[in-house]
Write a structure and sequence with these properties.
- By secondary structure, the protein is an alpha/beta fold.
- 31% of the residues lie in helices and 24% in strands.
- The chain has a five-stranded mixed barrel with strand order 5-8-7-6-9, surrounded by four helices.
- The chain binds hypoxanthine (HPA).
Length: 274
Amino acid sequence: MPPLSQRLDEALKGIRAVSSFVPRVGLVLGSGLGAFGDGLDGVVKVPFAEIPHLPTPGVSGHAGALCLGHVAGVPVACLQGRSHSYEGHEADTVVFGVRLLAKLGCGIVLLTNAAGGIRPSFKPGTLMLISDHLNLTGKNPLVGPNEASFGPRFPDMTRAYDRELGALAHEAAREVGVPLMDGVYAAMLGPSYETPAEIHMLRTIGADAVGMSTAYEVIALRHAGVRAAAISCITNLAAGISGSLLNHGEVEETAREARDRFASLLTAWIRRMA
Ligand code: HPA
């Protein structure tokens, strides 16, 4: 495999063959939110398959295109869908898309995901601003030789989730009347959902929600000096919290139901970055 810098150059060239658009804010659209990318003002779409080295997402609910356009006058680039480690990708492959957003010019990247609710007061449909994460996947996208031109060997993660962006998210939530909680996100490898015993452990160690994405991306973004923030849509109660069993259909359906609220929050949030 060619070095990361070469892969990124080739991917950028693939995009530049279609558009010279320079985004300021990057977005990673998780389960159910893909349509937000289609709604960008003056949208230009580049299918992931046409971007060299960018893995194509394999899960239903993840569309697979880079969308370039404006939200409230702010130039944005959306990754419509993402790939995950559980598909068999190395962690550094999973973060190729967010590194590409940085390469395109994004100084800010906002991530969204679907997550299981652990905190007892969370209900399906709750939106949670991630205040911090627990990376419990056993992997890290920065493992391997460090390319110093990208960032330091040992990046600081004390304030991985940008406080100013978090405050703007709360302002936006108040403006559009969408409740927004704060909480800690535990990242698991998946693809099996957790056992009730694992959820008990996660709750004990301080997790409010659990999912299978986002942590690697935030690590890679902080490594690159990009400001990051993330919001989870709680699509289900985590295993053992309610009496019922988990299935991906429920996750997709709740994400769909929350879509309009989530989209109006995102729009108001991005407007604050103008
Ligand atoms: N666990 C892990 N990942 C998830 C869940 C869950 O309960 N819901 C949505 N993504």
